[in-house]
């Protein structure tokens, strides 16, 4: 049963406390920890964008760094060559990344599960190799692109960590608000339906391919936004920032945090990004621990650390189904008599 | 033309290594319907264990004949990696056999990351170099094409292993049991087949073949690195898809073809795009002909 969404929820107090904390944080944190919060925000954005594809619709995408790269390189190339204002490039990056998402996902949408996962890995690698090979002298090869401009709004130049803190978290909040609305809309429910049972969804008149395409484009576009922010924040980008491991980190944020769950994504990004920052001494063993965590999570907590309500119900139902199915097997073999 | 034949020989050599690794992917997929992402890592661990035996233990100095020494390395490492494969299946995959499809995939990815980083922490992140001349450096020149003893050995060993596996699967009772499991676990169980043992067997054969391929890469290229499992694994997986996943002869053909495509592409088009070629083939195959060249199974559509 769904909890009544109108009921004042205890979680609201938690969100309020978090919001207050986020406002106080810049007063107490130094520049280094502000930047940690900034990158945490970028990863939350990336996690949220991948969550549309992996969490809502249940399509495995292990090449998400490619869309992130498209956004970042669009910003970098247009900013350094044509001196287009970076803030203006934000929608441009998003649209171009979404377009690439469309072109890539269009022919492969009929693939499911592992196959889709493999194709997206291949696509991600092709993008990285392309960036490395410097086609038409555009991407600068392994060295990447330097001297990307800072965002400017009415003469106010965003360049300090504090400025970025507010820019990034404003975008994160905006995204969360929009996604929350989307989640409960017709589209969001249709996405969840496709994830739970594609065939039944199609039978109910849901245009499965169109919605999957939409998810890919939205996810890619949002990753493009993150790419734009990243490029202007770093002012230098290189292909190594968009490697396969980056895709794995995003995938882990979604899967370990809780697919389809926005608080889950925050928890996942916290676990994947901020915890290693706290334990800098063990930085080498970081991926080792992640690998182990992925296995253990799948065995003991397959719906993630903070599962989505709808996902949780789906998993519970799956568990309930198991017993009657076994019983059915017994009764049918015995029922042959009559 | 001479250059073409030279590339062909190079391609077949590397292709036979891809094929050996691809067999591990295709067998696991055939029986469990999952991609064992950690298979590439088992392949990589094979070459690292061989490095330990040869360099750190100094096995080649203890044993007088290099060929006997190498044989011991191959057998010993294959056994160790097979044990690791079975352990992997027990810990990471078996508890998830009845769960959703996402779970084993994530778990396999986790196992891959874990093994890769474990090796990095143990052996360090740099390249390790195998000693020279473990295999006598004998070369034949046939019509201008240079064929070394190493390449002949690699081709011979991998082709005979593949032939042996093919016979095992097609002609023996054990092979019949494996084929039954690949069709339907429950029915196979009703026929008196111990499905868990067959799965364990697959996780013995696949990793052992992978380990042998790993040692051959170490001997052939002489440089090994903890990331190589990923690079070779993805290509081998492409080979398995190319031939039709779940199909054992398909994996062999796919591996050889991919090796040839890649070397010829690198030779005639551009070496910088060599890595992109295999991924492009992978994507095109999945879009245009998801059953692969020899495939019977269809990439799941519904």
In short:
The complex is a heterodimer of chains A (338) and B (302). Chain A has 338 residues and is an all-alpha fold.
Description:
The complex is a heterodimer of chains A (338) and B (302). Chain A has 13 helices and two strands, in the order αααααββαααααααα. Chain A is mostly helical and 338 residues long. Chain A has one domain. In chain A, strands 1-2 form a two-stranded antiparallel ribbon. Chain B is mainly alpha-helical. Chain B has a domain at 16-99 and 111-137 and 145-233. Helix content of chain B is 74%, strand content 4%. In chain B, the strands form two sheets. Chain B has a two-stranded antiparallel sheet. In chain B, strand 2 (139-142) and strand 3 form a beta hairpin. In chain B, helix 1 runs parallel beside helix 6, helix 2 (39-56) runs parallel beside helix 5 (102-123) and helix 11 packs across helix 12. The model of chain B is unreliable at 298-302 (pLDDT under 50). Classes of the chains: A mainly alpha (338), B mainly alpha (302). The interface between A and B is large, with 46 and 48 residues.
What is the radius of gyration of chain A computed over CA atoms, rounded to a whole number of angstroms?
A: 21 Å
Compute the number of helices of chain A. Answer: 13
Report how far apart the termini of chain A are: 39 Å
User: Main β-sheet of chain B: number of strands, strand sense, barrel status?
Assistant: 2 strands, antiparallel
Major sheet size, sense and barrel closure of chain A? 2 strands, antiparallel
Structural class of chain B: mainly alpha
Largest interface: A-B, 46 and 48 residues
For the biggest β-sheet of chain A, the strand order reads 1-2
Number of strands of chain A: 2
Low-confidence stretches of chain A: 322-338
**Rg of chain B (CA only):** 19 Å
Global structural class of chain A: mainly alpha
Proportion of beta-strand residues of chain A: under 5%
The largest sheet of chain B has its strands arranged as: 1-4
SSE order of chain B, one letter for each helix or strand:
HHHHHEEEHHHHEHHH
Shape of chain A: globular
Count of domain modules of chain A: 1
| Residue-averaged pLDDT of chain B | 87
The helix/strand series of chain A, from N terminus to C terminus, equals: HHHHHEEHHHHHHHH
Average pLDDT reading of chain A: 82
Tell me the strand percentage band of chain B: under 5%
């Amino acid at each position: 049963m769904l909890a009544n969404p109108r009921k004042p929820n205890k979680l609201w107090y938690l969100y309020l406390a978090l919001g207050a904390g986020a406002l106080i944080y810049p007063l107490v944190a130094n520049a280094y920890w502000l930047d940690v919060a900034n990158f945490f925000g970028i990863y939350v954005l990336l996690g949220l964008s991948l969550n549309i594809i992996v969490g809502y619709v249940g399509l495995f995408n292990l090449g998400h760094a490619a869309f992130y790269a498209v956004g970042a390189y669009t910003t970098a190339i247009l900013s350094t060559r044509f001196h287009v204002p970076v803030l203006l490039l934000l929608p441009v990056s998003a649209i171009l990344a979404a377009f690439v998402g469309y072109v890539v996902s269009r022919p492969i949408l009929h693939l499911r599960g592992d196959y889709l996962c493999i194709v997206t890995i291949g696509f991600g690698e092709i993008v990285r190799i392309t960036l490395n090979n410097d086609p038409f002298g555009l991407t600068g090869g392994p060295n990447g692109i330097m001297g990307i401009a800072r965002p400017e709004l009415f003469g106010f130049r965003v360049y300090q960590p504090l400025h970025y803190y507010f820019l990034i978290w404003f975008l994160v909040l905006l995204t969360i608000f929009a996604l929350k609305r989307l989640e409960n809309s017709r589209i969001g429910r249709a996405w969840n339906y496709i994830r739970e049972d594609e065939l039944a969804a199609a039978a109910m008149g849901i245009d499965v391919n169109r919605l999957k395409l939409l998810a890919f484009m939205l996810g890619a576009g949002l990753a493009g936004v993150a790419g734009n922010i990243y490029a202007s924040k770093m002012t230098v980008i290189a292909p190594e920032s968009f490697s396969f491991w980056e895709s794995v980190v995003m995938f882990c944020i979604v899967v370990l945090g809780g697919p389809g769950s926005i608080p889950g994504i925050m928890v996942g990004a916290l676990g994947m990004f901020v915890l290693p920052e706290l334990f800098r001494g063990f930085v080498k063993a970081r991926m080792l621990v992640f690998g182990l965590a992925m296995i253990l999570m799948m065995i003991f907590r397959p719906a993630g650390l903070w599962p989505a309500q709808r996902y949780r119900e789906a998993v519970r139902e799956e568990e309930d189904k198991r017993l009657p199915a076994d019983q059915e097997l017994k009764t049918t073999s015995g029922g042959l008599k009559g | 033309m001479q250059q073409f034949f030279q590339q062909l020989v190079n391609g077949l050599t590397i292709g036979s290594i891809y094929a050996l690794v691809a067999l591990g992917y295709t067998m696991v997929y055939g029986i469990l319907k999952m991609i064992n992402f950690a298979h590439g890592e088992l392949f990589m661990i094979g070459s690292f264990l061989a490095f330990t035996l040869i360099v750190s233990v100094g096995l080649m100095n203890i044993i007088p004949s290099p060929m006997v020494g190498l044989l011991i390395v191959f057998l010993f490492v294959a056994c160790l990696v097979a044990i690791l494969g079975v352990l992997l299946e027990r810990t990471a995959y078996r508890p998830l056999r009845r769960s959703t499809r996402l779970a084993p995939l994530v778990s396999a990815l986790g196992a891959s990351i874990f093994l890769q980083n474990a090796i990095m922490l143990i052996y360090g992140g740099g390249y390790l170099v195998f000693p020279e001349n473990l295999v006598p450096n004998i070369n034949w020149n046939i019509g201008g094409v240079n064929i070394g003893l190493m390449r002949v050995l690699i081709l011979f060993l991998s082709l005979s292993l593949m032939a042996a596996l093919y016979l095992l699967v097609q002609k023996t009772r054990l092979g019949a049991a494996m084929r039954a499991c690949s069709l339907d676990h429950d029915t196979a169980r009703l026929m008196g087949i111990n499905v868990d043992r067959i799965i364990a067997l697959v996780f013995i054969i696949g990793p052992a073949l992978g380990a042998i391929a790993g040692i051959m890469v170490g001997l052939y290229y002489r440089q090994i690195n903890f990331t190589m499992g990923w690079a070779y694994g993805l290509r081998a997986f492409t080979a398995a898809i190319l031939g039709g996943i779940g199909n054992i002869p398909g994996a062999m053909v796919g591996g050889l073809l991919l090796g040839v495509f890649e070397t010829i592409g690198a030779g005639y088009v551009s070496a910088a795009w060599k890595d992109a070629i295999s991924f492009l083939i992978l994507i095109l195959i999945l879009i245009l002909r998801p059953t692969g060249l020899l495939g019977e199974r269809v990439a799941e559509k519904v």
